[in-house]
Amino acid sequence: MKYHQIDRQLFIKNRAKFTAQMKPNSVAVFNSNDIYPVSADSTLPFAQHRDIFYLSGVDQEESILLLFPDAPYEHLKEILFQKETNEHIAIWEGEKLTKERAFEVSGVKSVIWLQDFHKTLKEIMAYAETIYINTNEHYRASIETETREARFVKWWKSTYPAHKVEKSNPILQRLRSIKESEEIDLIQKACDITEKGYRRVLNFVKPNVMEYEIEAEFAHEFLRNRSKGFAYTPIIASGNNANVLHYIENNQQCKAGDLILLDVGAEYANYSSDMTRMVPVSGRFSERQKEVYNAVLRVKNEATKMLVPGTLWKQYHVEVGKIMTSELLGLGLIDKADVQNENPDWPAYKKYFMHGTSHHLGLDTHDYGLLHEPMQANMVFTVEPGIYIPAEGFGIRIEDDMVIQEKGEAFNLMRNIPIEVEEIESLMNS
């Protein structure tokens, strides 16, 4: 890991919150992700399953966390299973977690080598009545590859068919959506690294630069600040490319007079940041670009005021739509007849702003959170309105990461990242 070790007290707290929600005499099991093959002997870089990381801090493949709070013996209440390390592995792959280091990272006292997992589980299942399986129920999930977690669930069901089954995900959706102060600090660190990348890029952009060169500048700054890199596939979209919402080719030349949409964010310690900013290739916004930009900024600022405890996500988007409608009328992009005759299922503003305004942020860029439940303090949301105008050759989106407060306006984790037209122009021309 590149990041500084996280205080294990965070993971001890997280496990305590989870086990408090478990039914009596039940077991919960969490698996690491696989290392995914490419072809031949090539593999993708390992990325830890966020749930086992949230509960243990273990950032290593072939790890299993087992929680059994009602176990008859103390050593069975929490167990971390790790692949046994040795001198050969240390030479070829680097050092893996020893039992002592696994405890230091996680706070789990009982660390057992993975080869003894099935024997240990067999004993535990003789005591337990229920198992919590960990399924992916995120509203954006689209899964085609069988995960290590899914293979375990299939194996467990066939091996222990008489036990009751519960789901971990509903508990984790609520717990992970409300951040501990330590987690907010880690997201802030990711945002601070993103800020460094953005300021670097402001000094780099000029006519004829390639989109991928800008991507490289971000990557350089992220890596030199202890990040593994981008929290998600970066969007570096110049000119009309900005009107493709998930443009990731990043292979075009940035032309004088165009805008570049930068939707990028650094990760830090597996926590995500998510930023969108606009950069004028020539260092100045045109009057029309500035007019649209400031309209989007006003929508973002008004939307942010609604991120308070008790707000319902669905109604929030309805209200943001009303604000956007007003701005689009002012820009001359729609007229009153468009609004009067609009389809309620696809309002007039959707022609220019067709995506949502906010999503949960945390260990995942689109983090856990139950959208039908009211917003609560210490939830982290993005705010990212946009206006996309293919006919005029540009699109604009602006995005910050906000922490909902008990009282008052949400706290902006990206408050130090330049956002006003004048500040961006000043920095680019200094």
UniProtKB/TrEMBL annotation:
Its EC number is 3.4.11.9. Keywords: Aminopeptidase, Hydrolase, Manganese, Metal-binding, Protease. Its cofactor is Mn(2+). InterPro entries: Aminopep_P_N, Creatin/AminoP/Spt16_N, Creatinase/aminopeptidase-like, Pept_M24, X-Pro_dipept-like. It catalyses: Release of any N-terminal amino acid, including proline, that is linked to proline, even from a dipeptide or tripeptide. Gene3D superfamilies: Creatinase/methionine aminopeptidase superfamily (3.90.230.10), Creatinase/prolidase N-terminal domain (3.40.350.10). One of its GO terms (molecular function) is aminopeptidase activity. Residues 6-142 form the Aminopeptidase P N-terminal domain. Belongs to the peptidase M24B family. This is Xaa-Pro aminopeptidase. The lineage of its organism: Bacteria, Pseudomonadati, Bacteroidota, Flavobacteriia, Flavobacteriales.
